[in-house]
């Protein structure tokens, strides 16, 4: 099982789309709302160098934004 983490905000359309994708595919994930959690926002910046959300980690691989085909490859699902 892959370890999936998403750094998101409540107002981000692509964040919502990514989380819906995970739910549809029964992928467990940890969600950090970086608009409400300064420590997690700092952590996201340190790990990714990005201010844009979503920042998604699948194990040690990172992607920024929501791209279903990229996530399927990272998660090794059809």
Commentary on this structure:
The protein is of the alpha+beta class. It contains 3 helices and 4 strands, in the order E-H-E-H-E-E-H. It has a 4-stranded mixed beta sheet, sandwiched between helices. The chain is globular and about 35 Å long. The model has no long low-confidence stretch (mean pLDDT 96).
Topology, element by element:
Blueprint: E1 4-8, H1 13-24, E2 30-33, H2 38-48, E3 55-58, E4 61-64, H3 68-75
Parallel strand pairs: 1-2
Antiparallel strand pairs: 1-3, 3-4
Keywords:
globular, 22% strand, four-stranded mixed beta sheet, 78 residues, alpha+beta
In short:
With 78 residues, this protein is α+β, with helices and mostly antiparallel strands. It contains 3 helices and 4 strands. A 4-stranded mixed sheet has the order 2-1-3-4, sandwiched between helices.
* Category by helix and strand content: alpha+beta
Low-confidence stretches: none
Q: Can you give the mean pLDDT?
A: 96
Order of helices and strands: EHEHEEH
Shape annotation: globular
* Strand order across the largest sheet: 2-1-3-4
Give the DSSP E fraction (strand runs of 2 or more residues).
Answer: 15-25%
Largest sheet: 4 strands, mixed
How far apart the termini lie comes to 15 Å
Q: Helicity level, as a percent range?
A: 25-40%
Helices, by number, come to: 3
What is the count of β-strands? Answer: 4
Q: What's the alpha carbon Rg, rounded to whole Å?
A: 12 Å
């Amino acid at each position: 099982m892959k370890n999936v983490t998403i750094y998101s905000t409540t107002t981000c359309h692509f964040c919502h789309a990514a989380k819906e994708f995970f739910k549809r595919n029964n992928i467990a994930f940890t969600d950090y709302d970086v608009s409400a959690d300064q420590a997690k926002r700092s952590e996201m910046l340190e790990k990714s160098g990005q201010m844009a959300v979503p920042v998604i980690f699948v194990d040690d691989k990172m992607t920024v934004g929501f791209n279903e085909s990229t996530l399927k490859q990272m998660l090794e699902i059809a």
